[in-house]
Amino acid sequence: MPLLARLAALLALAIPFDGLAQAWPAKPVRIVVPFAAGGPADIYARAVGEKLGAALGQSFVVEDKPGGGSIVGTDLVAKSAPDGYTLLMMSNTHTVNESLIPDKPFALLRDFVPVAPVNYSDLLMVVHPSVPAGSVKEFVALAKSQPGKLNYASSGPGTPYHMAGELFKAMAGVDIVHVPYKGSSGARTDVLGGQVQMMFDAITTMAPHVRAGKLKALGSTGKSRSSVLPDVPTVSEAGVPGYEAVIWLGILAPAGTPKAIVERLNTEITKITASPEMREAWAKQGATAMSMSTEEFGRYLREDIEKWSRIVKLSGAKADR
Questions:
Q1: Which of 218, 253, 249 lies closest to 236, judged by CA?
Q2: Mutual orientation of helices 294-315 and 259-274 as an angle, nearest 10°?
Q3: Three-state helix/strand/coil letters over 238-260
Q4: Which of 192, 240, 246 is CA-nearest to residue 216?
Q5: Can you spell out the DSSP letters for 5-33?
Q6: Domain boundary, last residue among 207, 238, 269
């Protein structure tokens, strides 16, 4: 091949990679949320999507695709074209499901590439006002006096709400029954209505119900009390020493998505999560912004998968599918 032809071929190969991030996005991008509308993943996907749209000049459209404890929507993204136009809003549901649901149609580290983390929030242990327990210790005593009689709701198998309940069962030594829903909205509605006695839910969404007197908050699940509800003790200090569980969110893309696009997304999302405006707004809601490089986020994913694998074994949690 003549020298000029070889140079032209090499240039043709180089331009798509270097120029891809500049040309992208040329059309709207969708962010698939594999959970029900109204939960933290949906809320923060919309917040990040709005900022990305303003920064990149294209719409970032959020699509809620709940089902199967995140399996349905996640599989849709795994099978999507790796062109930067379909992204996944994930949570630690996904890192739990790597060990809890090993027969799912995708593998997180095989079928996706890490883009960027978004934030994390403490959970809140709440009970319906009809439950005769005003503290974690009283709830534990009630559950031990009525083994298998009390229920707790979750947004589905493997979700942080499910695993928080299973971890509580194991550490408190109580027998309470898991009632899985297809999304957090249904679970929340039934706890508010008294059909289910207890739930662990994101403090960002539960705090208003507690303030309104619709639910009783027994404990928050972080290492220290939340500034959102500072009068509520942690579950650890209130009766189950060492207990800790949070929900965190991040963005993934299908495996094979060009590195230039992934890195550009990471840069823009990091600008969003690192901005004082966003950090202050999220802190008021009980969420802490996270910022990592793509490599750091990849390591974080692997470590979280390993952590939850140990907890799944410890708790004996089942998928309840």
A1: 218
A2: 80
A3: HCCCCCCCEEEEEEEEECCCCHH
A4: 192
A5: HHHHHHHHHHHHHHHHHHH--SS-EEEEE
A6: 238
For 250-300, how does the pLDDT look when each residue is reduced to its tens digit (9 = 90+)?
999 999 999 999 999 999 999 999 999 999 999 988 899 999 999 999 999
* Residues in the chain, total: 321
* Residues 110, 259 within the same domain: yes
What tokens does 321 get? 């599918």
| Host H or E run for residue 187 | helix 184-192
d(CA 172, CA 243): 9
Tokens matching residue 236: 């650890």
CA distance 45 to 116: 12
pLDDT digits (tens, 9 = 90+) for 13-67: 444 545 556 799 999 999 999 988 888 899 999 999 999 999 999 999 999 999 8
Inter-residue contact 95 to 64 (CB < 8 Å)? no
Are residues 129 and 105 part of one domain?
A: no
- Domain-located, residue 321: no
What would the pLDDT profile of 52-99 be if each residue is shown by its tens digit? 999 999 999 999 999 887 999 999 999 999 999 999 999 999 999 999
Identify the three-state secondary structure at position 71: helix
Average confidence (pLDDT) over 98-106: 93
pLDDT in tens, 112-146: 999 999 999 999 999 999 999 999 999 999 999 99
Place of tokens 């579950």: 235
Distance CA 221, CA 123 (A): 5
Where is the domain boundary, 217, 238, 259? 238
Residue type, 202: A
Residue 138, number of CB atoms within 10 A of its CB: 16
Tell whether 101 and 141 lie within a shared domain: no
